[in-house]
Design a protein that fits this description.
Blueprint (H helix, E strand, L loop, with lengths): L5 E4 L2 H12 L7 H23 L12 E6 L4 E6 L6 H7 L6 H12 L22 E9 L8 E5 L4 E6 L6 E8 L9 H11 L7 E3 L2 E2 L16 H11 L8 E7 L5 E7 L15 E6 L2 E4 L14 E5 L9 H5 L2 H24 L1 H21 L4 H7 L1 E4 L8 E2 H6 L7 E6 L3 H5 L5 H6 L4 E3 L4 H8 L1 E2 L2 E5 L12 H8 L8 H15 L3 E6 L8 E4 L7 H10 L8 E5 L4 H12 L1 H18 L6 H21 L1
Parallel strand pairs: 2-8, 12-14, 17-18, 17-20, 21-23
Antiparallel strand pairs: 1-6, 2-3, 3-7, 4-5, 4-7, 5-6, 8-9, 10-11, 11-14, 12-13, 15-16, 15-18, 19-20, 22-23
Helix pairs in contact: 1-4, 8-9, 8-10, 9-10, 9-14, 18-19, 19-20
Bound molecules: adenosine-5'-diphosphate (ADP) and magnesium ion (MG).
Length: about 625
C-alpha cells in the first residue's frame, strides 16, 4: 500500500478533454448526474456478475444500491454505490486516462468544433469527466470488491493533475463527492436531483435512493409484454441504455422459447454516428441472463456489422457465471447470435414491405452497414441481398429499387443482373457503358458507393441470376429486337469495312503495347468512340480504383479497349494512319487515356496533358489552313 498522497498528471488527452468540459458553455449540465449514476449502475452490475464467480468478495452482504445525498450548506452532492469499486491501479487508469480509441476520436472532434454536442460524452466512454461541468473539486473514494485491496481517495479540481491518497474504513464500492461550483449550487437540492433521475435514469436496474427514499422504477423493460409498453417508454428506455438524446428510428422487441429462450429489445438509433464522423462505433447491445448483466456492450452477441444497434438480449439458457473469455467461443452464444441476427433481418424485411418509407429512411442512414454485412457475412448473405437498395436506370433520381424488383421486371431473354459504378447518376448516364443499355432499354443498377461493387462481386448472383458489371468485356445482353436491328441497318453511320477495321485495331494494339490486353471492335458502343472493358476476372474498374487507393502496390490488371467503328473519329483515324502515322499514334494514346478516365482509372496526367496540347495545336493549325 502506498501510504503517502501522490499527485499525478492527467494524460494529455484527458487534460484537453477536461478543458473543453470545464469551459463548455453550451451544455445541458444535468447530464453529469446521468453519467455518474450510469457508472454506479455499471459497477453494481459488474459486482453482481463477479459475485457469481468469485469465492470471496469484500463486504458480501452490502445491499446493491445507489444512494445520493446533498448538503446545501457545503454545496456538495454525494453519490455512493456498493458496486465493484476500484483499486489504486484502476483509479489511476480509469480516471486518469482515456483508454478507448473511439473516445479519442470523439474528443478530437469535440475540440475542433466546440459546438459539437457535449451531450454525447457518455456514448464515448468518457462520461465521468462530465462531473467537472459542475464541480470545483471531485473526490472519489473507492474500495474494490477484492478482499486484499485497500481503499483510496482520488481527488482533483480538473486542471492538470489529481491526487491519490490511502483512505481507511471504506465500504465496498465507490463514493463520489462533488464539491459544486458557485453557479451549480442547484444540484445540492433533492428535488432537482429527483427530477433528473426521473428524466434520465429511471430504468437503472438498482434502487436509487435520494435522502433514503427510492426514486426510480426499477424494471427490465425487455421482460414485459409488448402490449404493456407505451411508445414513450420505449423511447425513454432507448435514451437510457444508449446514453442518447436522439429519438430511435425504430425498435424491435421479440421473445422466443425455441430453439432458445430469448428476450430481445433492439433499437435502431436516429443518427448514424459513423457517418457523422465519430469514428468506428463500439457494439451497443448488452447480454443478460434473467436480468443479470453478463456482458455490457457485447462483441459476441451480434455480428460486427450490426454494431449500430443498441439494446438488450436476455437468455435464460446462458450459464449465469460464464466468463467473458468463455463467451467468445461458446456455442450457445454463437447460436443466439445467429437467431437474433436472422430475426432482426426479418424484421427489416417486413418493415420494407409494410412501411417502405420507414425502411428507406433506415436504408439511407444505415444501409452502409448492411452492405458491410453482405461483403463479410456468409451466413446471412442471402437475407442481406434482399434488403439492398439502389438507384437504377428505371428509377427516378433518388428513388430506389431492390434486387427482387429488378429481377421481376427483367426483359425476356435477359438472364443477368447488370450494374455500373460511377460517381453520380449523371456521370453514369453520359458515360460509354450506359449506351447499349439505353438503346436496348435494359435496366441497369447504378452503384454509386465504392463498396457497392465489392458487395455485388461477393454476392455473385441473386435469385439464380449472375451479377455482371457493365464494364465486363463479355456482356451477354438479350438479343436486339427486330425494330432495333432495322433502325441500326438504316442508320447513316456506316461502320468501317470489316477488313479495314481489323487492320486498324491490330495496329492500335501495336501502338498501345502492354497497356492493353486487346483492342476489339465494339458491338455495343453508340455515341462514344471507345471504352475500357475488363476482359476477365473478378474486379471491376471501380474495385480496382478502391484497391489502388488503399494499396499503392496494387497492379491494375490489363484491360481491353473496345472501339466504335461507326464513329467518325475512328473512321478518320483509319485514314490518318496512312497519311501521318506519328500523329495518328498520338490520337490512339489520347483515346486510350480518355477511355481510362471514363472508367475512373488512373492515367499519367503529365504526358496526357502535353499530348493533348499537341493535338489541339494541330487542330488549330489545320483550321488556319482551310
Ligand atoms: P465509461 O463508463 O464509458 O467506461 P467513464 O468515463 O464514465 O467511461 O468511466 C471510466 C471508467 O471509470 C469506467 O469504465 C469504470 O471502470 C470506472 N468507474 C467510473 N465510475 C465508477 C464507479 N462508480 N465504480 C467503479 N468504477 C467506476
Ligand atoms: Mg460511464
Amino acid at each position: 500500500m502506498t501510504s503517502k498522497p501522490e499527485t499525478k498528471e492527467f494524460q494529455a488527452e484527458v487534460k484537453k478533454l477536461l478543458d473543453i468540459v470545464i469551459h463548455s458553455l453550451y451544455t445541458e449540465k444535468d447530464i453529469f448526474l446521468r453519467e455518474l449514476i450510469s457508472n454506479a449502475a455499471d459497477a453494481l452490475e459488474k459486482f453482481r456478475h463477479q459475485k457469481l464467480m468469485e469465492e470471496d468478495v469484500f463486504d458480501a452482504d452490502a445491499p446493491l444500491e445507489i444512494a445520493i445525498s446533498v448538503n446545501d450548506k457545503d454545496h456538495t452532492l454525494t453519490i455512493t454505490d456498493s458496486g465493484i469499486g476500484m483499486t489504486h491501479e484502476e483509479l489511476e487508469h480509469n480516471l486518469g486516462t482515456i483508454a478507448h480509441s473511439g473516445s479519442k476520436t470523439f474528443f478530437t472532434e469535440l475540440a475542433e468544433a466546440q459546438k459539437k454536442d457535449i451531450n454525447l460524452i457518455g456514448q464515448f466512454g468518457v462520461g465521468f469527466y462530465a462531473a467537472f461541468m459542475v464541480a470545483k473539486k471531485v473526490r472519489v473514494q473507492s474500495r474494490s470488491f477484492k478482499t486484499d485491496a485497500e481503499g483510496y481517495e482520488w481527488s482533483s479540481d480538473g486542471t492538470g493533475s489529481y491526487t491519490l491518497s490511502p483512505e481507511s474504513g471504506l465500504h465496498r464500492g465507490t463514493k463520489i463527492i462533488v464539491e459544486l461550483k458557485d453557479d451549480a449550487h442547484t444540484y445540492a437540492n433533492e428535488d432537482t436531483i429527483k427530477r433528473i433521475i426521473k428524466q434520465y435514469s429511471n430504468f437503472v436496474s438498482f434502487p436509487i435512493k435520494v435522502g433514503g427514499e427510492k426514486v426510480n422504477t426499477v424494471q427490465a423493460l425487455w421482460t414485459k409484454g409488448k402490449d404493456d409498453i407505451k411508445d414513450e417508454e420505449y423511447t425513454d428506455f432507448y435514451k437510457f441504455i444508449a446514453n442518447a438524446f436522439d429519438e430511435p428510428l425504430s425498435h424491435f422487441h421479440f421473445s422466443a422459447d425455441a430453439p432458445l429462450a430469448i428476450k430481445a429489445l433492439l433499437f435502431v438509433p436516429g443518427d448514424n454516428m459513423e457517418l457523422m464522423g465519430f469514428g468506428r462505433m463500439d457494439p451497443g447491445v448488452s447480454l443478460y441472463c434473467q436480468k443479470v448483466l453478463i456482458e455490457q456492450h457485447s462483441k459476441n452477441i451480434l455480428p460486427e456489422w450490426l454494431r449500430f444497434l443498441k439494446g438488450v438480449v436476455d437468455s435464460e439458457d446462458l450459464p449465469l457465471n460464464i466468463s467473458r473469455q468463455a463467451l467468445q467461443d461458446n456455442a450457445l452464444v454463437a447460436k443466439l447470435k445467429k437467431v437474433i441476427t436472422s430475426r432482426f433481418l426479418k424484421f427489416l424485411k417486413d418493415q420494407a414491405k409494410k412501411q417502405p418509407e420507414q425502411y428507406e429512411k433506415f436504408w439511407t442512414t444505415f444501409g452502409l452497414f448492411l452492405k458491410e454485412g453482405a461483403t463479410s457475412d456468409y451466413t446471412h448473405r442471402d437475407d442481406l441481398a434482399k434488403l439492398l437498395r439502389f438507384e437504377s436506370s428505371k428509377t427516378e433520381p433518388g428513388k430506389l429499387v431492390s434486387l427482387s424488383e429488378y429481377v421481376e421486371r427483367m426483359q425476356e431473354g435477359q438472364d443477368e443482373i447488370y450494374y455500373i459504378n460511377g460517381p453520380s447518376r449523371e456521370a453514369i448516364e453520359t458515360g460509354p457503358y450506359f449506351e447499349v443499355f439505353k438503346r436496348r432499354d435494359v435496366e441497369i443498377i447504378y452503384t454509386m458507393e465504392p463498396i457497392d461493387d465489392f458487395v455485388f462481386s461477393h454476392l455473385g448472383e441473386f435469385d439464380g441470376k449472375k451479377m455482371v458489371s457493365a464494364d465486363r468485356a463479355d456482356l451477354k445482353l438479350p438479343e436486339p429486337d427486330k425494330e432495333e436491328q432495322d433502325a441500326k441497318e438504316s442508320s447513316p453511320a456506316e461502320p468501317l469495312d470489316e477488313p479495314i477495321a481489323q487492320t486498324l485495331t491490330k495496329w492500335m494494339k501495336e501502338v498501345l503495347g502492354e497497356k492493353v490486353k486487346e483492342v476489339a471492335i465494339s458491338k455495343r458502343l453508340v455515341d462514344s468512340p471507345a471504352m475500357i472493358v475488363n476482359p476477365d476476372g473478378f474486379f471491376t474498374s471501380s474495385m480496382e480504383r478502391v484497391m489502388r487507393a488503399t494499396n499503392q502496390e496494387h497492379q491494375i490488371s490489363s484491360k481491353n479497349l473496345e472501339v466504335n467503328c461507326s464513329h467518325p473519329l475512328i473512321k478518320n483515324l483509319a485514314d490518318m494512319r496512312t497519311k501521318d502515322e506519328t500523329f495518328a499514334k498520338n490520337v490512339v494514346e489520347q483515346i486510350y487515356d480518355n477511355a481510362m478516365i471514363q472508367a475512373g482509372l488512373m492515367i499519367e496526367p503529365r504526358s496526357m496533358v502535353e499530348r493533348s496540347y499537341q493535338i489541339i495545336e494541330r487542330a488549330l493549325l489545320s483550321k488556319e489552313n482551310t
